[in-house]
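TL;DR need structure tokens for one chain.
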Amino acid sequence: MAGCLPVPPMVLLKGTWTNDKKSRMEITEVHDDGKVATSTFSGTYYTGVGSVDAEQAHPMYGQWMRPRDTVFAFMVTFSVMWENTVNQETREPTRRATTAWTGMAYENDGKPCMETKWTLTSEKYKKDFWKATRIGGDSFTKKSA
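>> reply
TL;DR here they are.
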């Protein structure tokens, strides 16, 4: 990670992040009590993929782990529960899923970055459990204020 500098997680995380799939994550709350190795953050996720309305807000919750003095990045994990398209007659979600991301957040040449891997698990009948989970990765960058 050439050009990485230590940045306090409270400063780095808060704000709007985007990825190459046109998804947007708005981290609005970052907590750090200074007493434990991990702390929390939360916000809203807007997906740019799948059958979901890109402007539909999905609550997002995560944790970050305080870096050791010799590490210029810190670990993050966050998740989103999806209730995708809605049946117009019953107003019930017709597809449900959850995605969990895990990775590292850091600053590279003055630009906040987040490299993650994700697993997406969709609601399936038991006979289809084998195809319920997908795996991939996302690279997020923070939008300038």
